Amino acid sequence: MIVMSVVTALVLLALVTQAGVLVLQRAFPPQGRMIEVDGAVLHAVDIGPRDSGLPIVMLHGASSNLEVMRRPLGDLLAQNHRVILIDRPGHGWSTRARRQDSTPEVQARMIDEALGKLGIDRAVFVVHSWSGALGARLALDHPARVAGLVMLAPVTHPWRGGVGRYNEIIATPVIGPLLAYTVTLPLGYFVAEAGARSVFLPQTMPDGFVHDSATPLLLRPREFIANAYDLVTLKEAVAAQVARYGEISAPVTIIAGETDKTVKTNIHARPFAATVQNAKLIVLPDLGHMVQNAVPDLVKTEIEAMIGKIASVNAVSG
């Protein structure tokens, strides 16, 4: 009797989850174009004037999608620059064929291929959090594509501890998908707001952020599992690339917060800045993790300063 009750409950939750997926996808439809690459189909939104010089590519972190980079920073930059926002493989409206394609190395290859198909030869990359490791990998493996790198609260180095027990469980075969396809969406719907608020601390989360950033898309089973794989494989991935950071030749600007509890500046931003040959580090005393929301004008100023310097160097060398 107990077994039958559990099975019935799981079936009902699975039906609720599938209905919820349909509702979420209608509420937050894709905004850009789909680009086929080896192992994935990437969703990219291309905004701003096309004839504005060096384009800007924006890459989001974990548990999110391109809308996190679009509002307010991407829209602000698009007033004067061409901005390409990309859902990382497996996130938002991007897919990936294998869940194991979770590393910065693999995702950098996919993004490099997509940009080639978009006709983007070189760009300034703006990366947040998890994508700090991705931006570094792009600069290492695809240096011709990276004119400059602006890193916001970036992950770059191994750290003590894990990435949350629930991520480890979701990334576990059988039991992870079972949970993802039954309880994750119904439960996550009620805790998403509180979780997002905690990431913003000590800043206050903007009103409507969860909806405006399409964060509920994360609760879809296939994305929730992909996100868990990204997180549980990240420490080993950054450990494998740390020794190469001295090879990065592109100009790098890092903006991080002293009070960031999600990605600690002393573990990531400071050691990275000390290793990279052409790095500028800005650490703000009261800044948390969501740099692009807290200080968008500062980020914009630093991006435009970098673009100006690159243009000057190119003019002299030309």
Beta-sheet strand percentage?
A: 15-25%
Low-confidence stretches: none
- Specify the structural class: alpha/beta
Number of helices: 13
Describe the sheet with the most strands: 9 strands, mixed
Arithmetic mean pLDDT: 95
H-E string: HEEEHEEHEHEHHHHHHEHEHH
Helix content: 40-55%
Count the E strands. Answer: 9
Shape: globular
How widely separated are the two ends? 79 Å
The radius of gyration over CA amounts to 19 Å
3D architecture notes:
The chain is α/β, with parallel strands linked by helices and 318 residues long. It is built from 13 helices and nine strands. Strands 1, 2, 3, 4, 5, 6, 7, 8 and 9 form a nine-stranded mixed β-sheet that branches. Strand 3 (56-59), helix 2 and strand 4 (83-86) form a beta-alpha-beta unit. Helix 2 packs across helix 13 (296-317) and helix 3 (104-117) packs across helix 4. It is globular. It starts with a helix and ends with a helix. The mean pLDDT is 95.
